[in-house]
Amino acid sequence: MNDVYVVGVHTIKFGRYLEKSIKDLTSMTVKECLSDAQLEKKAIQALWFSNSGWGDQKGQSCIRGQVALRPMGIDSIPITNVENACASGSTAFHHAWLGVASGLYDVTMAVGAEKLYNTNKMAVFAGFMSGIDIENVVEISRGLSVFSLNEQDKKAIETFKKKYQPQVNGHSKKKPSIRQKIKDLRDQIVVAINLGEKLGYDTLRELKKITGPSDHSPFMDIYGYAARKHMNKYGSTVEQLAIIASKNHFNSTLNPNAQYRFEVPVEKVLADRIVSFPITRAMCAPIGDGAASAILCSEKMVRQLGLSSRAVKVRASILGSGKEYPEDSGEPDIGERLANQAYDIAGVGPQDISLAEVHDATAFGELHQAENLGFCKRGDGGVFAESGATRLEGQIPMNTSGGLTSRGHPIGASGLAQIHELVVQLRHEAGKRQIARKAVLAMGENGGGALGNEEAAMCMHILETPSS
Fold first, then answer.
1. Residue 187's pLDDT is what?
2. Residue 462: strand, helix, or coil
3. What angle do CA 419, 424, 427 make, to 5 degrees?
4. What angle do CA 106, 107, 113 make, to 5 degrees?
5. What is the Cα–Cα distance from 274 to 39, expressed in whole angstroms?
């Protein structure tokens, strides 16, 4: 394989873009990414376009990249559409890397754009069901429902509520207006018909018996279940999860591209609404829109264009899928397996990594991946975070961008936003959030979907600071 370099990166500010289309968001990031790379659009020889929800939300199920890019004059070149759940953006990056590493192209591009925000929140959460085995949704929901809580979990919830959750003190919530009630009913009907047509109405009725109305995606229940298991087995604590979330909210205040740019102290993380115990709302990634992109070049083209001083080398690029095995078999997690592959290819180990961006759709995701990537021993992820090791000034800063929890998580763009953060850190261009230690090697982990005991898809990348 040939050496590959990242020469351009960009992320728009994640948030709500109700008045803008996928085409608009795509144009915003592509133009700035080209500018960062000092290239014209005609230089791009092939492009991979990442998007997950355009088809479900607006009906653009096919030729998404061609539709999004043609208005800005990018056409005729090979454009490949990528959908790999939350790992879509990093999957697009992996294939753009592969196009150069194979010698087929000298300049490729990966672009991710997503619009998740919808005034019908139920429709958004229902859309996340496509990231699991939809034919077995009833069985999966049974396993993740409140009935999976054991007596120890239930006691822990009550103790937690008494200690951290604010008391209502007899005050009732504000009643919704007639208009709001009508809208809520309309939203429920729209979602029910949509799901009923997809799953079958018998399946929908069975699903409703198990789950009832939901104000979050099924992935939050998966994270909650995994976090409870970790707490029961290793003694990790909800306070440690709150420390991780609070750290990432702080990092996002230093990131102009972050969706959330406010601090959330540990006590407020703990006082926030429980989503799926022990996960509170402040520990979860928000719903939002966004776009991000990256341009990759061969070594020959980097020299030809005079970009060596800002070209970040891709030391390893791994794409893998989850596999089936018994839940408590001791089988290494997909994150551990792919991290070891990446280390072997790059010829480095976890002790050599300067910083990492990992998939923290909840705070537990960061704890779990800190262990998978070998930054600490299995079971010590909470203690590791509590020690301060993952802060900007720590031993191995994690999610310096604010992570999915606070930078935001527009699915098709998230993996590329991670790449953007790692590149600016390795270029020492991250401003106030630049890590304290010298950034030499950076690692990115981006997972997508849930199939069995682990993510359905995952990418792992190791990048190296410019040599000159």
1. 74
2. strand
3. 125
4. 150
5. 47
Q: How distant, in Å, are the alpha carbons of 172, 208, 249, 439 from that of 354?
A: 50, 46, 21, 5
The pLDDT tens digits of the residues spanning 166-186 come to 764 444 456 778 888 787 778
Q: What is the pLDDT of residues 55-79, one digit of tens each?
A: 888 889 999 999 999 999 999 999 9
Q: Distance between CA atoms of 122 and 294, rounded to whole angstroms?
A: 32
Amino acid letter for position 132: I
Least confident among 175-184, 247-256, 311-320, 443-452: 175-184
Cα–Cα distance measured from residue 300 to residue 107, given in angstroms and rounded to the nearest whole number: 10
| Contact criterion met (CB below 8 Å) for 414 and 404 | yes
How many other CB atoms sit within 10 Å of the CB of residue 317? Answer: 25
What is the C-alpha separation between 371 and 50, in angstroms, rounded?
Answer: 28
Rounded CA gap, 245 and 362, in Å? 8
Alpha carbon separation from 294 to 49, 90, 112, 364 (Å, rounded): 11, 10, 9, 28
Sequence-distant (6+) residues with CB within 8 A of 27 are 71, 72
Q: What does the alpha-carbon distance between residue 404 and residue 363 come to, in Å, rounded to a whole number? A: 9
> What's this model's pTM, rounded to 2 decimal places?
0.91
